[in-house]
Amino acid sequence: MAAQPIDLSTRFTLVPAATRRLGADLLVNAGGATASVQRLLGTGPELWWCFSRGYSVGEAVAHLASREGAPDDLEANVLKFANSLVATHLAEVVA
Amino acid sequence: MIPIDTHILALAGAGLPGGRPLVRDEWGERLDEVATHGLAGILGWARSEGLADLDEDSAHRLDLRLESEAIRAVQLEGELIRLEQILAELPAVVLKGAILAHSAYPDPSLRPFTDLDILVSGRHQHAAVRALEAMGYQRTRPEPAPGYDARVGKALTLTHPGGVVVDLHRTLVAGNLGDSIDIEEIVAERHAVLLDGVPVPGPSWEAHLVEVALHAVLGDGLARALSIRDIAQVALHPDLDADRAVELVDRWRAAEPVAHGLRAVIDGLGVALPGPLDTLAGLHPALTPVVPASSRSAKRRVDELLHGDVARRLTLTRALVAPTPAFMRWSYGQRATPQLYGRRWIELYRRAMEARAKQPSRADTPDGRPDGPTDSARAAAAPPTDSSVPAQVMLAPRPPVELVTRRPSAEALAAVGPTTRLHPRPRSRQERWSDKRAPRPGAGVAPPAPPGAPGDGSGTDAPPPPEPVAPGAASLPEGGLRLALVGVGVLFLTALVARLGIDFMGLVLVPAAGIVFAVAAGRTIARRRPDEAWIGRFLVLGVVVKVVASYVRYLTLVGSYDGQGDAIMYDEYGRKFADAWMGNGIVPELDNWRKTNFIRVFTGWVYFIFGSNVVAGFFIFGLLALVGSYFWYRASVDAVPGMNKKLYLGLVLFAPSIAFWPSSIGKEALMQLGIGVAALGTSYLVRQRLLIGLAIGLSGGWLLWVVRPHLLALVTLAAGCAYVAGRIRGSKTGVGSFAGRPVGVLIIALLMAFAVSQATKSLGISELSLSAIETELDEVSAQTGQGGSKFDSGGNSLNPLNLPMGAVTVLFRPLPYEVRTPFELLASLESMILLVLIVKRFPSVRTALRRARGSPFLLYCIVLLILYAATFSSFANFGILARQRSLVMPALFVLIAVNPVAPRPKDQHGLSRPEVVPSSEPPGPRSST
Prior knowledge:
- The complex is a heterodimer.
- By secondary structure, chain A is α+β, with helices and mostly antiparallel strands.
- Chain A has helices at 44-52, 57-65, 74-87; strands at 12-14, 18-22, 25-29, 37-40, 91-93.
- The longest helix of chain A is centred in the last third of the chain and has 14 residues, at 74-87.
């Protein structure tokens, strides 16, 4: 099955997972003993928070853009992050 | 008294209302100590708040530690999410760990944890284990005994190959205290704590307060700061109802330990508690040193054995003394079963001795593991070193904004795969314990670990190679041997508790051991001799009858003789000896260890080993006599063809005189054993199995020689007559083929000479003449003709014409018209029944007399009866006579139990056809000695 394209309107369902902030990073474990812990660096925690509340990619970009010191290429980075989530099976695109 | 440094305690109370001020520096040097107490997260918070200073290197080490704890915690929390369905259905609650981190502490990073503690009531334990096994978990050890998990154990541990450890708790505290805590109530009142939106069941805060307090006080001995902080966090939780918590503590009879825990919060952390909890803590104003779990364990186990639910006590007994073979192989390796149990009992004994010496013991659980804390956090709290934490994980570059996912250790974690331990960390106590006792290959406990997992042989955690298995160990005979080992174990347990000063357990355990031995012997005999498959029932009933008889004998002694009897004197000496050997007195001085003195010393041995309890002593002596009765049976049916086996065994086990008289602490019981052993030896001798016959006979003869040398003389003379006059069939091989008979005659002659000389010496007869013996017999009559049961023995003469009267006196008196006391009435009744039996089975007696030379063991019995009649007829006291009679009655019963054979018809030539009697030799080849 071909992967669905991700754009600014895409929303996600995150898999049930345990998370914990570690400084600016977020540790994620989906699968407990049968899965490894992944580390979302930098602003990963905020994006996880946004997607877990049903934000679309565009809404997440807007949310982060309101923060002080946000980078210029925020949209590209968020899209990259969203693709990574899907690729690592931590999130599924809502049809 | 809290065995924790005050600075550490101050750190444990940091951030709490009333918490003591922290010192700013020193923390770099004490980082390891901080981590060991589980306070790395709190130190990190204190540093971020500017309350504590750390140099750069220490700060880096602290960060590594916090990362390690966080990675571990998130994996465990992920596992709780994976187990959500199981936790909901069992039902179960999660204790401490993630529940406290997420809903009691202000930040989960303040509360590290390294395993999952799940509480399930006893009746759901097996279902929980099955459910977890379905999720990939494996028990770290087999169940020690059926029902142990559900009734006895505080918790059992399961591990997942991915590195998660689950402690599956049955109760909050080990021992009888745990019984008063209503686990069903805890589970019924559970509430949900959300972990990333997933509900995880936790106990009510009131129940959790009890749990964390018990854990801190009884599990950790108030030696771990994080455990005390847990109490404070729960006690101060806004949802906690302090009044209800106090009510719960009272109802669960946990006031003392919980109060200790609360007191530790107040005094140690300086934190003020809500009113009702403060009042509860005030019940124990001065903190007393808490005895660590390892030191309490043996006493607590004894308490569990003595009190509480019977099924639980039985299960615990089985687990301690005779665990399942799977458990034993897991504990000690793949060895032959007897070796395993031998090692087990030696270890138990050693622990009991340690406990007696008030040394710390590890007899807490069947495997020796302390049953207190199961939380592995403390052991895992050692700080990680650079070599133990991959640099890729902990030192990953952190650009200010990088919106990509990345595993914490890109290369290392990719290599180990998803089913292995996620992050290297110090081995927890539990894991080290599990690793040490990893199932041996072939033990059938758990499948091999996957590659890379602990114990897979690829790293330093590899278990030792399998030990060589003794040839044939896998095909050890079942049933009898194993049960006999159980019996030995029960006796061992008796000795064990006696070492702890509990003497009365022998009242239950000695009869229990007797029954187990009887069943074991029955199975073994039935396997070796299929025609005696019924014998087990007889033996078990024999044990029961003997125990009852021993108790009646004891009551008789106490009730009818006002406690004035030989047994009481032996009891007093036995206690003195036992106490002295225990180091609590002076060993009584005795001129020698013969006759009465030997019984005194022997009683001391019995008391020293099994505890100083007179009734248990009666049981032991009685059961020894029972063994003697069985030896009589074995000797007779093996040596005399055509015995009515059931009749004979029934007579030697259940005849009132034999059951009753040799059942007390005294000479009769040991003489019953000694004569039985001597009879067995004679049985071999007259079958020309010289060496084994002598070996057995001499051991029985030694016992007779030590206690009653004149009995040795009678037995030896009887055996000599049987051997010399009987038709001994020489064996075709070995000693018996050539020189066996002459050698045997020579040895018997020497033994007879020795025995007779010893007897005359013992009796004080200066010369071996008929007149001297008669004079001695007259003296015996005078000595015994006292008391309420005296009678006129009719004079003593060795004239053969007096023998029939002597035999009647020894075997049947008092006759009904001589009865004066209730005991004499009973003895007379038995005699009359015996007479009727003899009359009814007179053909048997006639057959026995006729076949005496052909079956020399019959001759042995006849001669023994004659000698007994000649000597003991001088006794002029019915009471003494009845006791002495019981020792020779098995010989009389042999004559009664021989199957009668009709007179042989003559053939056409006027010659008798040979008798055809059923063989009583056991099947299978017999070696000739």
